Amino acid sequence: ISDEDIKSYFNSEKKYSRPFIITMKKDHDRYIKSRDLLISLGLDPIKFNAIEGIKIHNHPIMREFEHLKPSEKGCLASHLCILALASKHSNKNQFTLIVEDDIISSLTGHSLKDNLKRLSKITNKVKASIVHLGKCWETCGDMDQIEGNIYYSSRPYCGHALAIRNSASKSIILPEIYNLRKAIDDIYNSLIIQEKLIGLTFHPALFYQ
Q: At what angle do helices 70-87 and 184-193 cross, to 10 degrees?
């Protein structure tokens, strides 16, 4: 991440941060597509060069995740790095947006911002920790509807498009999560099932992959 983007991120007092796009350096075309999609929806994304799992295989933290594939290790480490930044943000009620570079969407114009405005009203009342913006595996019949296409999460499984409240990010990066010994999608899922995080899900989703 550039120094300019880091400064911009920490100086923002808006409800939602500029979205981080996690992308591998080799996947330039995928990054451009996801970047242009977000720009078309009125957002100003930040490029986050994904950590390569193969390069951190011997890192002490990764000893707890030896069973994960290199790609899963890289994805986990990338999310944790962004969450570490979020945990240091002065605006604890801000939601940090995290997307991966394979997102697609049928949204156009102001439709994303309109959905986020509705979400803002709900999260001002419901102290949600994490919002799944993207298509995820869910037990849809067990989700409780709050309003329109926004539901309480049940068992969401996806990390491709998320909004995470900065105040909740610290609890996700605590050493205790290493005991879960899981990929990042599973960690988010487990923390919601264990009711350590309050999750919301858009259904139908705003993004797909």
A: 60
Give, in degrees to the nearest 5, the angle at Cα 75 between 69 and 76.
90
Hey, what amino acid is at 73? K
> Can you tell me the distance from the alpha carbon of 93 to that of 104, in angstroms, rounded to the nearest whole number?
27
Q: Give the integer Cα–Cα distance in Å for 6 and 175.
A: 25
* pLDDT value, residue 179: 75
The 10s digit of each residue's pLDDT in 85-103 is: 999 999 999 999 999 999 9
Q: Which residue has the tokens 């067990």?
A: 142
Distance, in Å, from the CA atom of 79 to the CA atom of 145, rounded to the nearest integer, reads 28
Tell me the C-alpha to C-alpha distance, in Å, between residue 207 and each of 36, 86, 88, 146.
14, 22, 27, 19
Closest CA to 164 of 127, 195, 137: 127
